[in-house]
Amino acid sequence: MHPVIKRLTQCIREFKWPAILSPLCMVGEVAMEVTIPLVMAKLYDHGITYSNMTVVLQQSLLLILCALVSLAFGSASAFFAAKAATGFARNLRHDMFYRVQNFSFSNIDRFSSASIVTRLTSDVANLQMSFQMMIRMAIRSPMMLILAIISAVRINVKLSLVFCVALPILVFALVMLVPFVFKIFDRVFKTYDKLNTVVQENIRGMRVVKSFVREEKEQEKFTSISGSIYKDFCKAERIMALNNPIMQFCVYGCMLAISFFGAKMVLASGNNEALGLTTGQLSSMFVYTTQILSSLMMFSMVFVMLTMSRAPLKRCYEVLTEEPDLASPKENAVQEVKDGSIDFENVGFRYAAKAKHRALKEVNLHIPSGATVGILGSTGSSKTTLVQLIPRLYDATEGCVKVGGVDVRDYDLKVLRDQVAMVLQKNVLFSGTVKENLRWGNPNATDEELENACRMACAHDFVSAFPDGYDTHIEQGGTNVSGGQKQRLCIARALLKKPKILILDDSTSAVDTQTDAMIRKAFMEDIPHTTKLIIAQRVASVQEADMIIIMDNGMIVDVGDHEQLLETSPIYREVYESQKKGGDE
Predict the structure, then answer these.
(1) Is 8-321 a CATH 1.20.1560.10 domain?
(2) Is the whole-model pTM more than 0.90?
(3) Architecture per CATH, 342-584
(4) Residues of the chain with CATH 3.40.50.300
(5) Rounded to an integer, what distance in angstroms lies between the CA atom of residue 392 and that of residue 395?
(6) 3-state helix, strand, coil in the chain (%, to 5)
(7) Phi and psi of 361, rounded to 5°?
(8) Cα 349 to Cα 360: distance, rounded to the nearest angstrom
(9) SS in 3 state form for 103-123?
(10) From CA 560, how far away is CA 538, in angstroms rounded?
(11) In the chain, pLDDT over 70 holds for what percent of residues?
(12) Cα separation, 290 vs 251, whole angstroms
């Protein structure tokens, strides 16, 4: 079995029996449908022709019974197929979402957020329809084709030779058309990713779009990509539409041939079954002609669906088989972080293995537990990259990073990240109440603990001023609170973890200097034993730190306290004097 198919069939799991019963019921339905023309032929030849009411009644009852049994089998097949397909889609989404949750930052970098959303929604929906069609139509078509041909041959071998002309034409047309459609659908689903990207960017940046009056530009961008999808789909449908007239040509051609040759056979045999062909058998041949050729038409529809699902199949498989770059050690993972000391030992880092330039170079640093460390540097100096190695959001490509004297790669990931709280540059709040957002830091936090954390982050006053206080609803992305309020809530959320290491990545940039000072003072008084790393743009935010690190071009160029750096570091002195001058003015 192909590895892609093998992996995705694992998502059937508890819906295995509905997936098996659906095709079995479909076999029963097809068997009854193929039997009905034989019953009709007997009804006509032995009942109606000779006015034998006993045979008419018997065959009529048998005909009704076959139709009811066919209906029962068809209904059961549809029920089981729907249950199996929806269950398969549910499990597939579950597996993909859980896999994404285990991705490291480097894994996520390989997939855009729009692409992941498309794979979890549109791609899975296409696979669901294809799976449902496969366990019904993909069974029905060949079964109908085989049984109908066998029945037609049993009636009259010579007349069945008509199908030997029609079938190759249809198969040839299908083989010629499908490869063109494969390429188009591959392109379509990649374009869907672009469409989702445009929509997401537009919705997230709605305020920017409106403030710059760029609605028309965004509409043009959306229309262009949407138009590309429309053109590709139209092109694919036009190609597949050629299948229908070829199908109709073969059907009616077979009907004419069977009518012509069949009528001659009926006349030659005098409606005697032993001598050749009867009227009832000729009518059955018409039904079998329709069944044989319509089964081929169904088969072409299955091909179209499989063609459309080929790209989603590959894209979902990519997510399911993407191995997380970061994982806990399989054996003897360290389960306790002793203290908040941090050591960088000759650390180097590249975002990609093939990257020419290193984001970090030869970093050697020791931070004692409980210290307050400020990190300054120009934009692009890799300050954020440095601190992301501590909770192991990325792994160092050279050297090692130690927390509590232990290499971070030896820790259980959950244990390490529970003891390292990080407030990122892009503050994210989730839809829900203030309490629900804060309890991301500690699900079991009491109301008193929530308030204490908010007081330390200088968030309690503005939260209390909300009409519903801590039960105030936060919109998705925190759009109903200001940037400074969002930052303070994120800091409070991190404090609730009671971590041994607290990292603030430029997390007070949106608050005023007085509030910034109050937050730093609270840190000194309330969490003195927690190691605090503060990335900032303002010297005032870090000048009271025990240690200040100056970074430039991925390297640590100076380390010291405020007074030492004023004397020894030209970069620090230049930044300090420019900010001091601006403050004086």
Answers:
(1) yes
(2) no
(3) 3-Layer(aba) Sandwich (3.40)
(4) 342-584
(5) 6
(6) 65, 10, 25
(7) -135, 125
(8) 5
(9) CCHHHHHHCCHHHHHHHHHHH
(10) 16
(11) 97
(12) 7
